[in-house]
């Protein structure tokens, strides 16, 4: 199994669920994570990533970490300083239409979105609300482009798009697609030589459907237009994603693998969870499993079954622990103060 991994967490693209997979694998195999200094989940985002943002990194003794997966704005020469040269790089993309709708709810408090009553209103005259000079403006335009390290306000000329796609392709071994999450996990499992249980997950950081809005065809076109660079990235890598499946796995085997993955997930849900799945924030009984609530989104969570044996409880709990709590537990474990040795 591969243990050196760089995951570029792209906002609002099922990244939290992927991170849970990486956290569990890293914890099980005693791997080291490249944590932000002092913990937390942002490597000085939205600034470009620098190796010096990582706790325990020193240019004098270039210590390598196994997994780099916290929020960062990608800058490969700096990333290469903290991971081994054989690390597998991957990321995940989402259809920019759904991504923007999600961002509008989740990042409602940002400068671009706070004054617009609705996404329609924002898109009717975006430059009335959007100021590229503001430090949080990236949430409102070409967010994926920004996370990959490029200029979200660059023109979408054919040449520029081509250069950007080539650069992403040169840096990343795999780009997952969140709309095909289970297929993505099967592909990831193949590339990393992991077993099925390592990529099983429950969806984390997802919104209650009551906070999702329906988008008209006109709005959909406006979103694609406004996020032209993101749209180009998505269309291109959605195509190469399926080309890769055809080449490396084949559709039939992919269907079989997805079926097995879903069966295993259903089995774990029956074992671990109270009720049938996610619940509203107010219904989460264990406060340590309460996900961060943000903007106007209602983020769902889970309740564990009572009376599980110790080992089962541990496994189930890891599957449903929200990103921030899991991250801080791993941070404490990795940087635990060693007790002073007796003389």
Automatic annotation (TrEMBL):
Reading the lineage from the top rank, the first entry is Eukaryota
- Gene this chain is encoded by: Gal3st2_0
Pfam families, A to Z: Gal-3-0_sulfotr
* Keyword Transport found: no
Single annotated GO MF: galactosylceramide sulfotransferase activity
Name where it mostly resides: Golgi
Instruction: State the GO CC annotations.
Output: Golgi membrane
InterPro entries the UniProt entry points to: Gal-3-0_sulfotransfrase, P-loop_NTPase
Q: What's in the keyword line of the UniProt record? A: Glycoprotein, Golgi apparatus, Membrane, Signal-anchor, Transferase, Transmembrane, Transmembrane helix
Q: What is this protein called?
A: G3ST2 sulfotransferase
């Amino acid at each position: 199994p591969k243990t050196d991994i760089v995951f570029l967490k792209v906002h609002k693209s099922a990244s939290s669920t992927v991170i849970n997979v990486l956290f569990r694998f890293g914890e099980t195999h005693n791997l080291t994570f490249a944590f932000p200094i002092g913990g937390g989940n942002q490597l000085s985002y939205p600034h470009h990533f620098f190796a010096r943002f990582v706790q325990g990194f020193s240019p004098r003794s270039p210590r390598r970490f196994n997994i780099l997966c916290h929020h960062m704005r990608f800058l490969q020469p700096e990333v290469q300083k903290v991971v081994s040269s054989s690390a597998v790089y991957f990321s995940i993309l989402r259809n920019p239409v759904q991504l923007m709708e999600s961002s509008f709810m989740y990042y409602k408090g940002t400068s671009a979105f706070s004054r617009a009553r609705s996404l329609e209103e924002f898109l009717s005259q975006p430059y009335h609300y959007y100021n590229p000079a503001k430090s949080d403006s990236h949430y409102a335009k070409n967010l994926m482009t920004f996370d990959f390290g490029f200029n979200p306000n660059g023109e979408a000329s054919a040449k520029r798009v081509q250069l950007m796609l080539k650069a992403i392709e040169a840096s990343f071994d795999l780009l997952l697609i969140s709309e095909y999450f289970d297929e993505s996990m099967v592909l990831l499992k193949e590339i990393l030589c992991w077993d099925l249980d390592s990529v099983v997950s429950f969806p984390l950081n997802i919104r209650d459907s009551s906070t999702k809005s329906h988008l008209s065809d006109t709005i959909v076109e406006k979103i694609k237009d406004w996020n032209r660079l993101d749209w180009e990235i998505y269309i291109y890598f959605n195509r190469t994603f399926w080309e890769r499946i055809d080449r490396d796995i084949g559709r039939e085997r992919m269907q079989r693998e997805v079926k097995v993955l879903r069966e295993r997930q259903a089995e774990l849900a029956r074992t671990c969870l109270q009720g049938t799945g996610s619940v509203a924030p107010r219904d989460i009984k264990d406060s340590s499993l309460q996900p961060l609530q943000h903007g106007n989104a209602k983020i769902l969570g889970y309740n564990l079954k009572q009376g599980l044996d110790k080992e089962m409880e541990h496994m189930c709990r890891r599957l449903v622990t929200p990103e921030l709590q899991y991250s801080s537990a791993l941070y404490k474990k990795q940087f635990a103060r060693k007790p002073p040795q007796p003389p």
